[in-house]
Amino acid sequence: MDNQEADVIVIGAGIAGLSTAARAAEQGLGVVLVEKMSAIGGSSAMSGGWFAFTGTQEQQDAGIEDSIELFRSDLRKVGGYRNNPALVEAYMDNQLQTYEWLRAKGVSFGEVEISSGQSAPRGHSTRIREVLQLLHEDFTANGGETLFDARVTALDRNADGRVTGVIINDDTQLNAVLGVVIASGGFSRSRELLSVFAPEQLSAIPYGGPGNTGDGLRMGWKLGAGMADMSSISGTYGSHPETTDEQQELLTSYYMGGIIVNTDARRFVDESVDYKTLGSAVLTQPQALAFQIFDAPVRAKSHRGIALKDMDTLEDLGHLPSADTLEELAGLVGIPADQLVGTVDKYNAAIRGGEADEVGRTHLCNGVGELQPIEVGPFYAYPAKTLMTTTYGGLTFTPQGKVTDVDGEVIDGLYAVGEVTGGFHGAAYMTGSSLGKGSVFGCVVADTLASSYVGAVNG
Ligand SMILES: Cc1cc2nc3c(=O)[nH]c(=O)nc-3n(C[C@H](O)[C@H](O)[C@H](O)COP(=O)(O)OP(=O)(O)OC[C@H]3O[C@@H](n4cnc5c(N)ncnc54)[C@H](O)[C@@H]3O)c2cc1C
């Protein structure tokens, strides 16, 4: 390291830290990005790459009708109206310019799809590793410095209580003139913190970046930071029980026309609700396991290489059993054949108007999309569990990204962005709103710091 002082220290090199760092460096601030692993990425690099934006070129090109009003009301609704309206509003105010900023950095957005918690297609797909690489290159080109294998182990505070820097690997002090930004991700890899805040999630499959052990949460906690949404932490349904860190296998065929049954071949939840709520519902079922059942027309909607929709790769991996009849399929995956046939018959009858749906389902996804009977073979059964990908509760913060304490007072000099924060999502999560929140609030925090710099220089 060239010197022991920076304008800004950013802890963690995922989407949140990289957005903050790149945006701050382009405005002339001296930024040191501190990453405990030997490479950038975190959970962001393992993610599906979906960003939630509205008013974009891609939506216009696809003729999608959406609006800020609908986006806001979807976010509030999926959050159970427990999310902080001021934070949702800050996202609304800044999301389009963040999208434009990412595009200006060279990010290209592909398909726009509807997904969990959305009532209009606004999930914008990206090649997320390329996005992270572009931001890191941009940061470095603007003079930013990155320290790898450098774990921040403590925050430094002066006598006035202002956060003035960090301690790295327990022995190196680094001071920050303007502020320290915690962008260290969640704690999906900490059994200890999960057992404190979300013990039921211990039976989900552990996932997310290996560095996501809640370091930033603990450091903020130690300084008296408030916390929000800790009681809403939930995994995502559904991923194959043998999924690996190298190949994430999340599939949401239920939003494309499938149903979900338990090991007794019975439905137990309205499949159109957000996949975090589904994640909690599946944890209550026998073996915490449920099968996504669908037929050939749903299988035909697969997008190879597109997260949540990629049945082709699952089939290549041998994780998507299929058969010409439902009876055979049930035999293959070891669930009762008579019951599976009965469950599907009942579902089809409800769609044809014969009777009410047994779990109250009326649409494919979040009130949108027409249900189709499951009747054209071959039939498929994807065995899937709840994946503990992300912990959306964390440090409380203002719409400018300043961390607040348990009394709601700003902790001077301390900022937070990304998955380490709480209050934005509320009860559950909309696809794309986490990468979105990392980049949107990353830009907001960087702008806040840049204006405080101008303020300091102008006296
Ligand atoms: C399988 C999967 C699929 C997902 N799909 C999507 C999706 O399509 N869309 C969406 O919006 N969200 C998705 N998510 C959630 C989303 O990816 C994360 O919430 C988001 O990427 C978090 O970004 P972040 O920058 O806050 O944290 P991270 O990307 O996890 O980055 C945090 C970084 O901080 C580092 N760090 C931690 N502690 C320290 C320390 N003490 N010192 C220094 N460095 C430290 C970590 O090593 C890590 O590199 C998905 C998550 C997973 C796991």
UniProtKB/TrEMBL annotation:
Q: Which GO terms describe its molecular function?
A: steroid dehydrogenase activity, acting on the CH-CH group of donors
- The segment(s) forming the FAD-dependent oxidoreductase 2 FAD-binding domain are 7-435
Q: InterPro entries of this UniProt entry?
A: FAD-dep_OxRdtase_2_FAD-bd (IPR003953), FAD-oxidoreductase_2 (IPR050315), FAD/NAD-bd_sf (IPR036188), Succ_DH/fumarate_Rdtase_cat_sf (IPR027477)
Q: Name one Pfam family in it.
A: FAD_binding_2
Name the domain of life this protein comes from. Bacteria
* Keywords, ordered alphabetically: FAD, Flavoprotein, Oxidoreductase
One annotated GO biological process: steroid metabolic process
Question: Could you confirm whether the keyword Manganese appears in this record?
Answer: no
User: Has UniProt tagged this entry with the keyword DNA-binding?
Assistant: no
Q: So which cofactors does this thing need?
A: FAD
Which protein is depicted?
A: FAD-dependent oxidoreductase
Q: Species name for this entry?
A: Corynebacterium hylobatis
